[in-house]
Amino acid sequence: MADPHEVERCDAARNRALLLDAAAMLVAERGADAVTMDAVAAKAGVGKGTVFRRFGSRSGLMQALLDHTETELQHAFMFGPPPLGPGADPVDRLVAYGRARLSMVEVQGDVLRAVETAPELRFGGPARNVGLTHTVTLLTAADTHGDLRLLAISLLAPLEASLVLHQVRSLHIPIDRIADSWEDLVRRVTRAP
């Protein structure tokens, strides 16, 4: 006879995948701003309470959508080939990290922006903390002077989806120009005085 807890875990995993698939379809069809907990529940054919129990909030749902992409980026900068991964100059790695982040915004910007609206995720979410730690580590390896944590926070701010999307959509600045400008900023900050 099957363990009831195992059956429940399988059901929970299946529901989570069903809800994330429904949310991804809605983002593709309507954009992230149009995705509500009600719409996800309706698309998945479940009650709204199921969505709230699984993700807690709309921001939690948006965060879950990004988890897979974020995990891939983290794997790339921890274990992948240079210049993003180990083995390259720390400044080149930091530049590659910023360019990879900007590529994420280019593809999933609306979802990233939706996650940024939740203060607990915008400034203290797990992905943000990993990126911040990685940036501080690279600044340290590059023998950068100053308050490295604050420098890292300042360097990551221009990569936030809300700002990048504003620059691209409202100011019509090409993403390549944003990436080149960010590289210039990194190289200036890491230059020894």
Structure in words:
27% of the residues are buried. The chain is mostly helical and 193 residues long. It has two domains: 1-56, Homeodomain-like (Arc Repressor Mutant, subunit A, Orthogonal Bundle); 58-190, Tetracycline Repressor, domain 2 (Orthogonal Bundle). It has ten helices and no strands. It has helices at 4-30, 37-44, 48-55, 58-79, 90-116, 119-122, 126-141, 148-156, 161-170, 175-190. Helices cover 76% and strands 0% of the residues. Residues 13-73 form the HTH tetR-type domain. It comes from Rhodococcus spelaei. GO terms for molecular function: DNA-binding transcription factor activity; transcription cis-regulatory region binding. This is Helix-turn-helix transcriptional regulator.
